Amino acid sequence: MIDTTVSLPGLELKNPIIPSSGCFGFGKEYARLYDLSQLGAIMVKSTTVEPRLGNPTPRVAETASGMLNAIGLQNPGLQKVMEEELPWLEQYDVPIIANVAGTTTEDYVEVAKAISQAPNVHALEINISCPNVKEGGITFGTDPAIAQQLTQAVKAVSRVPVYIKLSPNVTDIVSIAKAVEAGGADGLTMINTLLGMRLDPKTGRPVIANMTGGLSGPAVKPVALRMVYEVSQQTSLPIIGMGGVSNVDDVIDFLSAGASAVAVGTANFVNPFICPEIVNQLPEKLQELGYDKVEELVGRSHRLCVR
Amino acid sequence: MIDTTVSLPGLELKNPIIPSSGCFGFGKEYARLYDLSQLGAIMVKSTTVEPRLGNPTPRVAETASGMLNAIGLQNPGLQKVMEEELPWLEQYDVPIIANVAGTTTEDYVEVAKAISQAPNVHALEINISCPNVKEGGITFGTDPAIAQQLTQAVKAVSRVPVYIKLSPNVTDIVSIAKAVEAGGADGLTMINTLLGMRLDPKTGRPVIANMTGGLSGPAVKPVALRMVYEVSQQTSLPIIGMGGVSNVDDVIDFLSAGASAVAVGTANFVNPFICPEIVNQLPEKLQELGYDKVEELVGRSHRLCVR
Amino acid sequence: MITQQQKIRQECMVIVEQKEIADSIFELTVEGALTEEMSAPGQFVHIRVADSYEPLLRRPLSVASIDFEHSRFTMIYRAEGRGTNLLAEKRAGDALDVLGPLGNGFPVDKAKSKAFLIGGGIGVPPLYELAKALNKKGIETVHILGFENKKSVFYEEQFRELGDTYIATVDGSHGTKGFVTHVLDRLPADFDTYFSCGPTPMLEAVQAAYPEKQGFLSYEQRMACGIGACFACVCRTTKSETDYVKVCSDGPVFAAGVVIS
Amino acid sequence: MITQQQKIRQECMVIVEQKEIADSIFELTVEGALTEEMSAPGQFVHIRVADSYEPLLRRPLSVASIDFEHSRFTMIYRAEGRGTNLLAEKRAGDALDVLGPLGNGFPVDKAKSKAFLIGGGIGVPPLYELAKALNKKGIETVHILGFENKKSVFYEEQFRELGDTYIATVDGSHGTKGFVTHVLDRLPADFDTYFSCGPTPMLEAVQAAYPEKQGFLSYEQRMACGIGACFACVCRTTKSETDYVKVCSDGPVFAAGVVIS
Ligand SMILES: Cc1cc2nc3c(=O)[nH]c(=O)nc-3n(C[C@H](O)[C@H](O)[C@H](O)COP(=O)(O)OP(=O)(O)OC[C@H]3O[C@@H](n4cnc5c(N)ncnc54)[C@H](O)[C@@H]3O)c2cc1C
Ligand SMILES: Cc1cc2nc3c(=O)[nH]c(=O)nc-3n(C[C@H](O)[C@H](O)[C@H](O)COP(=O)(O)OP(=O)(O)OC[C@H]3O[C@@H](n4cnc5c(N)ncnc54)[C@H](O)[C@@H]3O)c2cc1C
Ligand SMILES: Cc1cc2nc3c(=O)[nH]c(=O)nc-3n(C[C@H](O)[C@H](O)[C@H](O)COP(=O)(O)O)c2cc1C
Ligand SMILES: Cc1cc2nc3c(=O)[nH]c(=O)nc-3n(C[C@H](O)[C@H](O)[C@H](O)COP(=O)(O)O)c2cc1C
Ligand code: FES
Ligand code: FES
């Protein structure tokens, strides 16, 4: 028997496959397609104190092997998430990782404190890296000192373990990771999107109304993998890796690079059944590679490459 | 008549199409395929003081809509470039942009001083952003103060205008651009490659012997375009834009975003005739868009998007 | 809006026929069990045009007609960008990855005795299945269809068989010169309900022309998921400052006066 | 190394035939003017398998046989990864974007009277055109070919028609069990020149087996440009600490003892 379980702070996962935040709403739509209890966990849409309407449309644009988005953290706000979305998800046997966003430390603290009380929320993911919101978010993710302070503030109020979601749009992601580790983070999730842009060659206008957007999908996988590989060797925090994961081989790659579990974002749009498909393929793939447990694979690339 | 000429410091270009450094050697191979005099200019391979053998192989790996490379600045060294490569290129009516690399300021200064004397070298491109060389290079490109000092040092010895090649692997590319502007740079070239990685899912080993490599090709275009768009609005330096340019529409996009000319790298490997093809298509494309001159298109996106 | 909780399927369907029926306009018929889930004219499907990461995203296309008997349906689309041009290369016998049916279609039951079906360009296709459904219910349909020019006109005959049909072309090369509104200006508004699909400016003009009439409009937005999860395709509504709808899952059809476009 | 300055062309060639000749092994024949530029067995071409950015890079494939009369040539390849699997989907009549001929082939003139041609797996194909060329010059050729197993053996008959042919399979399901070196151990070294193409460990074993003989080996390296411009495919040489060659443009064939692999 192949053991696909993964133990992480706050999270006992059946398997390491998690739909990523913002690509899975609060699960309702995908629940029409398959049983959500098959998933390792669910990262729900970023939640802010107040409801947010998000950015003007168009909010998405296709790029070579990727896409840009500038949704702008549209969400129904903390109250509705607490009263409707999370309770609805209780019918499934799946841990929820609640994604917290904001523009001030107080915002983050308020959402983290409340949402971490929800019975099915087993961990928080703190989005300090959304590139699509003008007023903030991104600065939290690009300055180690600010990231550390925010981590401490959130940790102080959270009832459940806290994972910090790192931005790839930085010179030195290891320094941010170390800072949030020092701030008491329980884990890391990475990467959020790369800031990008698409123009309409006919008009010269940006295709996305917000002008710039976050790049995701297979195009960014090499960058994500490199960052997971670096950070996992230089901090002791567990990592939920993401960025372009589209098939079971990609999952193997992220685990090899040092991620303990893997999140799937954009690929859900291409194939809405991708998460359960990967869940089903994983045991056979592990067997093929000669591993009995997912956890044995984690970080194997480090052991293979001793510079 | 459509006017495709572009005037830049040191460079009077017939057209804005330039093969990018490292993707075109010193021109000899492509000269077997077409007349190099058709090109706007040529960015030759990075040159260092001493010959360099580069990294172990494999040095390249394919990724989704992109590729990784870790050539490691293999080049025949300053002396041979001065005595053989550049003189050979004199037979063509095309300005050369000599790319200068090194690991210390002294290296850069030595190469810049000598190579800027070559009669067909009309500008220097200072590669402060190569991600594939362990001993240095990249730190010059990620720290504004160091980048500024290096720019000053190179400017002090160069006989021709100096363009600084920026790294995309930074939190704030505008601050680096401003620093090199303050250091006296005459222009910018951007972007170099994004640091990435590919693993073999069978073994967990990096496909590239150097482990990490630089990501280029269509996958990175959204990131490159966003950076050109930002930097061109916040400095007054002319920009030679690059990153994933593969067809004439991509050229239009980079010009629209604020680049004055465009370099083509990876696309040469996919279609070795791509540069002259784009050169030939450009006038018609401009006409279609209602422009008489390439220069009219530069930065049109800025004018369209007033936030 | 009407929320029908039909089953969404992802199916590797078989292409039965593909042909160019007007300038760059293709008619594509596919066969498979997914057809059975379709519940109303105006629904759409989300098509993966290539088994590649480039193009990455699915393409939304409306269902133009359904043949339940043979488990087939037909789409009509313009080969325009990268994805639809690749789609146009496919041939009978090829497999096609289809996700659907998606969204809520036109509320056929709302029409009483006579309906105007007003379409523009690639907004015309879903009106065809709608016209068939309305006629089946004994409702008279009048079709006002706008196209670029004579070469891009399609399905004129098919619509004529179902009711009076007026064509407008921008350059006047066929039918009335101008937009569908030029035709509407001259037609008596002797209908109870209108249904419309086409470019946003057209939808707005149609709404403005019949402020007092019951109408249903099908909207377009850039989409990613197509099923309501990603918030790519939202529009504000007239209901409140904070109200919004998702075109993919709440629409694409909305009652006139609801969506702020 | 031999430097032939033939003309490199990029041509949209036409596929004349494609068939699977062994387990996952495809024989692909194309037609077009580019064929005329070929100057020696052992050259390769660089193939763009899809008009897409994914896969992005060309794939290098050796020329397995040339039919100058009809301006055709044949490649034999294993459908392994993404690119070659896409290539395997192509059919007669399809177009194929080919860049070539590239590199310098085997120096046919160096053999005197008898040559050993030693190939492994997908290193076997270029030896076929080489065998034909040597035979044409009156040189006797002996073929020692290694494969994974019986199912992956190809062109055995074709080689037999040109000279003695020995097959080795790793699992012993056909011919000698083991590697080509197991066959070589038992053959008298009564040849003047050997030519070899296959995986690097095989090339090393072959060189080690005949240190005194004149030999020519065809190497593989990951490539980007395929024409000598990008420095992806370099190997150090035994000439000096700083000497190197580019497999794509200086090779892929090198004299034994030159390349450090
Ligand atoms: C609900 C719905 C139903 C539609 N029905 C039809 C139909 O029946 N026939 C038809 O010809 N067209 C229809 N369209 C428009 C069709 O989806 C686009 O023409 C198509 O996606 C363009 O793809 P491309 O590959 O040609 O263009 P590209 O420029 O390569 O597309 C790039 C990206 O932009 C998106 N995009 C581009 N144009 C549009 C658009 N107008 N609407 C939404 N997304 C767009 C693409 O889906 C893709 O994600 C419909 C759109 C929607 C939202
Ligand atoms: C000069 C030369 C001649 C060759 N001749 C033949 C031949 O006649 N028949 C044949 O079956 N194979 C041949 N090969 C190997 C062939 O190029 C690879 O099998 C093929 O590129 C793999 O592509 P893929 O899409 O299947 O694999 P992928 O894994 O998708 O390839 C990813 C990338 O790695 C490169 N790559 C993967 N394997 C190899 C390899 N072994 N050598 C070089 N690049 C590789 C690909 O070109 C591509 O850039 C030759 C290689 C070289 C260098
Ligand atoms: C449409 C879309 C919306 C997203 N929204 C959020 C969000 O609300 N919060 C967040 O932390 N990340 C968000 N992300 C980022 C993803 O969770 C993920 O980090 C990123 O897309 C990389 O993974 P992928 O390549 O698998 O998509 C969003 C991504 C997409 C494509
Ligand atoms: C194989 C390869 C080698 C490169 N070598 C150099 C180099 O020597 N010096 C340099 O400044 N940039 C080098 N680059 C970076 C390119 O000049 C260019 O900045 C980058 O590839 C982005 O453009 P592209 O996407 O069009 O390739 C190299 C890129 C590639 C792909
Ligand atoms: S396209 Fe994702 S919510 Fe509508
Ligand atoms: S592949 Fe570019 S130099 Fe050989």
Brief digest:
With 307 residues, chain A is α/β, with parallel strands linked by helices. Chain A is built from 12 helices and 14 strands.
* Main beta-sheet annotation of chain A: 8 strands, parallel
Instruction: Return the structural class of chain C.
Output: alpha/beta
- What Rg of chain A is obtained from the alpha carbons, in whole angstroms? 18 Å
Q: How do the strands of the widest beta sheet of chain C line up side by side?
A: 4-3-7-1-2-6-5
The largest beta-sheet of chain A arranges its strands as 3-14-13-10-9-8-7-4
In CATH terms, what is the architecture of chain A? Answer: Alpha-Beta Barrel
Broad CATH class of the largest domain in chain C: Alpha Beta
Helical amount of chain A = 25-40%
Compute the number of strand runs of chain A. 14
CATH structural fold name of the largest domain in chain C: Rossmann fold
Indicate how many domains the architecture of chain A comprises: 1
Helix and strand element order of chain C: EEEEEEHEEHEHEEHEHEEEEE
Average of per-residue pLDDT values of chain A = 95
**What molecules are bound to this protein?**
flavin-adenine dinucleotide, flavin mononucleotide, FE2/S2 (inorganic) cluster
Question: Number of helical segments of chain A?
Answer: 12
Protein name (chains A, B): Dihydroorotate dehydrogenase
GO cellular component, one term (chains A, B): cytoplasm
Binding site for FMN (chains A, B): 21, 45-46, 99, 127, 165, 191, 217, 243-244, 265-266
Organism (chains A, B): Planococcus salinus
